[in-house]
Amino acid sequence: MSNSFPSRIVRGALTAADVDYALTVLDEAERVDGVEPLSEQHRLAVRNGGALHIVTEHGYGNVLDARDGEAPMAEAVVHPEHRGAGEGRVLVDAVLDAAAELGDRPQVWAHGDLPAAGRVADVLGLERHRELLQLRRPLSEPLLELAQRDDLVVRTYRPGDDDEILRVNNAAFDWHPEQGGWTQGDVDERTGAAWFDPAGVFLAFDAADPDTLLGFHWTKVDKPDLGEVYIVGVDPSAQGRGLGNLLTLAGLHYLAERDLSGVELYVEGDNTAALHTYARLGFTRYRADITYRKA
User: For 126-148, what is each residue's pLDDT tens digit?
Assistant: First the structure.
């Protein structure tokens, strides 16, 4: 394959100049496309390391280390002013080759399922593999009332809750390539973020065992006028008690009190049960993110 856009691989931390360059490309792509080109974990890796970085003349991509048994995940973007000349094809090919060194069947994200990403995938012979849906709901519409439960204690985040949050998160998402396998560092990164608000993290405990977490809902507000159902995690042993619905509603009421116009969430396209739950709560499809892999 002809390559007129040489790629440079950086293992570990980027230089300050490379960080500034990558963030400039990401910000300009988001401004033009209306979609964040990299997901949260991949964007955090620009500054914090923990990734294999690929840099081209007008593009940037990275690959995160894969969990055991999971496919490596890659993301990439080309500056909008330099698209249409083949650099996207070269960059995506390079990130997939780099990802293949870290595990089998690597995947690359296409956020927003934009037509240009589909064309690159067609040229490279990639197949669609995973669909992550973004759902949204206006907060101007009334919410269901929050049920009062005698069997539960629901409160907000306190210092010292991290161990239980990690336990429930990793049990609830042991199947999930991004959300599962969290460490204390993952929690610290988020509780230390500018958007973190302990009043927006809701935890449910059994009234008969108030030290053992059953589930949690972590909300997030890091975009103008838009909240997020960031994480809803329920211990598998507590499934069937209506915790997902209750905790989601608690967070929605909190976000509505902040005078935001709407709320978003992300859910796997094949998670039928969750899609039904969110539909009942007034969410509708807003966009899709797709992973591609080599056929």
Answer: 999 999 999 999 999 999 999 89
Element (H, E) at 168: helix 162-172
What does the block give as tokens for 243? 């915790």
The C-alpha angle with vertex 295 and arms to 273 and 57, in degrees rounded to 5, equals 100
- Spatial separation of the C-alpha atoms in residues 284 and 277, rounded to whole Å: 11
Q: Which residues pair with 64 in a beta bridge?
A: 51, 73
CA 147 remoteness from chain centre: 29
Residue 54 token pair: 């690929």
> At residue 102, does pLDDT exceed 90?
no
Distance CA 148, CA 164 (A): 23
**Identity of the residue numbered 59:** G
Task: Write down all domains in the chain, each with its CATH number in brackets.
Answer: 8-124 (3.40.630.30), 137-288 (3.40.630.30)
Of 197, 280, 198, 208, the C-alpha closest to 244 is 280
